[in-house]
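[job 0417] fold request received: GTP cyclohydrolase-2
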Amino acid sequence: MRQVTIRKQVRLPVRLPDGRVATGRLFSFDGLADGREHVALALGDRADGPGTGPAGVPLVRLHSECLTGDVLGSRRCDCGPQLDDSLDRLETEGGYLLYLRQEGRGIGLYAKIDAYTLQDDGLDTFDANLALGYPEDARDYTVAAQMLRALGLDEIRLLSNNPDKTAQLTRLGIRVVEQVPMTVHLTPSNQGYLAAKAARSRRY
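[job 0417] inference complete; emitting structure tokens
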């Protein structure tokens, strides 16, 4: 795996879900395998930079970008509420959010919108991807492992309901000592989406 280094780091005031403002530290990277602009945000006791947090295994959330959920407040998924939960918990416990540019489980924003139209016609989120010629889940977490190593981390507590994240990180040499479950945010608009994830639980 190629050597990845921290490109820049900057302090960043972050608004938490309850309205409080926390000071985090935002990291960019050089040498990531896919060439995309992924970032890491350190919060709580980890916000002073790599290697400066308390002893113990840090909590880490890998969060795939979701413009519709994270920014626009879409209720077709639970990405926005999961991001809020992650920020709150990472600030409390100290840890890292890796914000990965993997819109639509890795197929891209426009393709995700195309998949939405097929979901409106009755396909679930996985079959819609397949109907468009994409994998059920196209995400590769090689860059996440690279980012973690650049931050000086080779073992983590992973904040996720997705066992595929744990499996991929483990194969990439990151030791996941615990997979910490997240709250499921069920709404009338996302119940089909969440039911599909539960029914096809190889990855979730």
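[job 0417] notes: The longest strand covers residues 5-15. Residues 79-93 form the longest helix (15 residues).
[job 0417] exit 0
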